[in-house]
Write a structure and sequence with these properties.
4 strands, four-stranded parallel beta sheet, single chain
Amino acid sequence: LEEARAAADERERLVAVGDVERRFHADFAEAKAARVAIASGLRDTLPPFVRLTRPAELELRVSAAGLLPFARTVPGASCLIVGPTAAGKTVAMALAFRRLLAAGVADGGPTWVRAERIRWFDASELARARRGWPLGQGDPPQFEQACRASILFLDDLGQERADDGSVRDVLNDRYSKMLPTIASSGMRLTE
């Protein structure tokens, strides 16, 4: 009788463990689906010519430009990629951005926490957003997002109006908080 009771208890325990495991896997799958949805929205902020391109094709373009090592290992500190138009700067940054998102979705945890807070902005669009925001209402959401991003990808730095200090304000804010910024510019370093 005790053996039958012990066997019944063991079956109950296994059923309970199975329920816990099923709930865990369901929660895990649900969390990953949420990460995929958020990553998709973040990927939509990339310029169309790199957002719609397959990662393998991006790698070929970046490799041809000699920027593949950068795209594979995003630096933890800020950096500026300078070069002429069509040198592959934006493509290298986009590949790095997409890699960070993919790693966050796959790994979850701290990697996801960092990945879900990366942001991509064109410098001119960021400046226009601040110029177009009503006075007395603080800063526009884009400006706040750029200042708080875990890593800010800032494309075409130097293309905004020369008299507009908005992008400089974002960079100063990020510098004081020691947050990494990856920027590209078609200007020469002397400019």
